[in-house]
Design brief:
By secondary structure, the protein is an alpha/beta fold. It is 21% helix and 22% strand.
Length: 98
């Protein structure tokens, strides 16, 4: 079993989320380990724009397990709003988000 870890070297937008989205195709599990809902990234898939803050970008890919790790500052209201927004866009969320 191999692991790929992406570590940022600076604060702010350095493109970590976009790199993770590219690496997601090769992953079974995508984990967000730090930050809060003030951070986030935008992913475009087939022309559709997805804005993510707390939910790992793996949620946009079929058969990926996504984990919000214990280092993430979770605002429950923001998390529920983000999940509702993703569901409105047709993203299935259930047994794939932990």
């Amino acid at each position: 079993m191999s692991n790929t870890i992406l570590v940022g070297a600076q604060w702010g937008d350095e493109g970590k989320g976009k790199i993770i989205d590219v690496l997601t195709d090769q992953a079974d599990v995508v984990v967000r380990t730090q930050g809060g809902n003030n951070a986030g990234h935008t992913v475009y898939i087939a022309g559709q724009k997805y804005v993510l803050h707390l939910v790992p970008s793996g949620i946009l890919r079929k058969d990926k397990i996504c984990v919000i790790g214990n280092g993430v500052v979770v605002d429950p209201v923001s998390l529920v709003e983000e999940i509702r927004g993703l569901k409105k866009l047709g993203i299935k969320i259930g047994g794939n988000l932990f």
